What does this fold into?
Amino acid sequence: MLDAPVRPLVVALPKGRVLDQALHALQAAGLDLALQDDARLLRHESAGGTILVMRNGDVPTYVDLGVADVGVVGKDVLLESGRRVYEPVDLGFAKCRMSLIRPSGARGTITRVASKYPRIATRYLASIGSSAEVVPLKGNVELACIGGLADAVVDLVETGSTLTANDLEEVDVILASSARFIVNRAALKLRAGELKPLIERLRAAS
Amino acid sequence: MSAALPEGVRASLPARARARHGWRDALTHLYASWGYQPVDLPALERYDPNHPRAAQAFKLTDRDGGLLALRSDMTPAVARLVQRTYPHLLDPEEAQRPVRLQVAGTVWQAIDPEVTRTREFTQVGVEFIGVRDPRADAELIHLARESIRLVGLRPRVEVGNPGFVKALMDEADVPEAARERLADAIDRKDVGDVRTVLEAAGVPEARGASLLATPDLYGATHLLRDAERLATGEASSAALAYLAGTLAEFDDESELLLDLGMARRLSYYTGLTFRAYTLDYGQPLLGGGRYDGALLPYAAGFSMGLERLESALALGASEPPPARVLSLDDDAAQRLRRAGIAVARAIHADPQAAHEEAKRLAIPWVLSGGALTRTPGIPVSDEEADLEREDAERERAHLESILADANA
It folds into this structure.
């Protein structure tokens, strides 16, 4: 028989809105995990494992390099990271779509696209045969469109109200995103005994 | 002149360098004891756009303008050597004289460097060329497991057969255009995406059922029996039978794992592939497999990166002293050196100054006039006081016995 892994399960979770939902899903699937009541803590130990709380863009890095065994992160962030991890469960929450957005009524050729997701934007533009250049931005990309830095943006759309308020329109949906349960490639195999049933329960619940 | 190193390379200080030389020697011996003969290969190659890692090659320009590349992978380099030197192995009918080769050397890959991925690293590995047989694959998997054990880690070797996924795709008539996306979804174990791709490609549910099950076919080796029910034709059955034949060569399968959802590089790997892990380390330490037809008619092998081992073993916290003994007595020093003890020659001929010198260099013993003395303030080991005293007594007795022996 395989001997039990030496260290407790390490779980990477993103700060913000998704944190509670992710934790809830894992608890419902039987993981004995909890956050201590101190907002400054970055590392939370419980009987069922250790939670590391981080910026969502860092979750794929921690899991791919094996510092964390598993994690929860949006498909959009995962694709943008380019990391090769296992993604066995679509948890179904934190739904949003990534779209190409232009000023309402704009029709001409797109030459410059601003995005917080330069990798996804570049791949999308290549797939539609566009030679537009991508401007990577950190902040509010809609501003790039309004201010004239770019003639289109690639960004997340949840309700679309920001777009309407700024006289922008969604012209193409690039991908539908939702939260994924991701697993380090070595950990899935070395801890198959505990992770396989966990994955089954997460799938059954989502 | 700039003292900065290029991105993604690093120098090894003595603790790491010593560990690495030790592993390399031990692995070389292990492979030699199984009949794998060493070959040395040039690090400078002609650039070949069809090389499996052409996109990651560091390129150089030759004097005549020809394009050269730094060696980026040992396996194609060995394959090329075999193509030039062992023409009988190029004939698929001639399987009577297979060759077993081992290689070790630096390779360079122009990739984005990361914590566990440098752009210059040392590959050590073996290639078993000219035969396709489960016994050959089992030998390689066994050697992979022994390689990990040899460096002091507990091995887990995961075995898969991308040929199984490929056969299932053929048997389910998956359209060519959908195969790359399907293989990618299977390889990520994204069952939802596998379903989406199959639907989009118009594969009926019943025909795609086995493909949909492949991402979850991982775990202990008894899984193979579940997988046999999923075979949908001759080729997929044969892929599983080959795997079963290979596993049958092992009396103890407890350190082996299966993953029948391996689906990367389907056109390169044509038979079994395997990766070795160790507990609680999130990266593979070794990888290999069978690549018949890709470079040679029949060939399989594996290689491991020594830099990855260093990171798995979390080495390099403390630097060892350059020698155990600092000597003012050349004759006695020679006797210790012959017995394998590292002895440095003192710069200062005066015993008092030599003790100061030993202290600065953290060398625990001083040898003068045939007698050993402890260097004040330099422990012989990292142990607590009592244990350190025991270690010191043991080492003194050992060194003195060598000195006495040679006197006799």
About this structure: Chain B touches chain A through 25 residues (CB under 8 Å). Chain B has two domains: 14-312, 325-407. The mean pLDDT of chain B is 90. The radius of gyration of chain B is 27 Å.
